[in-house]
Design goal:
Order of helices and strands: HHEEHHEEHEHHHEEHHHHH
Structural class: alpha/beta
Mean pLDDT: 87
Shape: elongated
Distance between the termini: 53 Å
Low-confidence stretches: none
Strand content: 5-15%
Number of helices: 13
Strand order of the largest sheet: 1-5-3-4-2
Radius of gyration: 26 Å
Helix content: 40-55%
Length: 271
């Protein structure tokens, strides 16, 4: 009976009608656009790979070029997909115009959303490539983590240095696990690593411990006194002993320092 009802209900209807498929935006228009009129919005675009752009320029192919995805924003053309092809064309005097599909989008937020969609479908973006677009579209995790770092004079960066945080994936995972703990533990982590280049292994280990036991002021003092090098040495010893890495192993290495000198009843144990 159910099969008959289903067939009667959808007889003569397309899949679009049957399943309620939708169209979320309008088709673009094909235009040949002068290359010097094409702009790149660095607020959401990934960093430029100049070597890759030079390779495209050295052996230009119109077939490989295809069409650039462009948005018309108040008469200005911003590239959503194709910045390296545009940069390659800029290196050549014999190329003036580029084939583009031009879309009408509603502001910067929608541009960032489309950038993420296009590039996820074609080529995997790194977490750092996704960072600015996600911030623009208001991704809760990225916005709150970025604000948390800004409040502590830190910033996300792929390069390691004073005040930079390269372990974006670890912080995203921590936030997804327990956002409140992530925000409350971060100042303590920074205090324990005062003056040191921040390390993701120490963060994940400390976060793992904090999920089961509160981090006390004397624990932070112990980590400060030990210093980053000794903490990492202890983590590496734990990795060798357990023959694996990961958050729990990092935590076990840190516990060797935190439990040192404590009475048995005061020692921190992990499940």
């Amino acid at each position: 009976m159910e099969i008959c009802n289903y067939q009667e209900r959808f007889q003569g209807k397309s899949k679009v009608e049957k399943f309620g498929w939708t169209v979320i935006d309008a088709p673009g228009k094909y235009l040949m656009i002068r290359k010097n009129k094409l702009k790149v919005n660095k607020q959401y675009q990934r960093p430029v790979n100049n070597r890759f752009a030079l390779q495209i320029a050295a052996k230009w192919s119109w077939v490989s070029c295809g069409t650039l995805a462009v948005v018309n924003s108040n008469g200005e053309y911003f590239i959503i997909d194709g910045q390296h092809r545009k940069i390659a064309a800029d290196k050549r005097d014999d190329i003036r115009d580029l084939p583009c599909i031009v879309y009408e989008l509603d502001g910067l937020k929608e541009e960032a959303e489309v950038f993420l969609t296009i590039n996820k479908n074609r080529k995997r973006l790194s977490r750092f490539d996704e960072l600015n677009p996600k911030y623009i579209i208001g991704d809760e995790c990225i916005v709150e983590l970025s604000e948390l770092l800004e409040e502590s004079d830190c910033r996300f960066s792929t390069s390691r240095g004073p005040g930079t945080v390269s372990f974006l994936a670890s912080l995203e995972k921590s936030y997804a696990t327990n956002s409140n703990l992530t925000k409350s533990l971060w100042p303590l982590y920074l205090e324990s690593q005062e003056g040191e280049i921040l390390d993701g292994n120490i963060w994940t280990g400390l976060f793992y411990i904090a999920r089961q036991h509160p981090i006390e002021p004397n624990d932070i003092e112990k980590l400060q006194k030990a210093g980053k090098l000794k903490i990492l040495q202890s983590i590496n010893k734990a990795k060798a002993f357990y023959n694996k890495g990961g958050e729990r192993t990092n935590a076990m290495g840190i516990l060797q320092i935190l439990n040192h000198g404590k009475a048995e009843k005061n020692r921190i144990d992990l499940k």
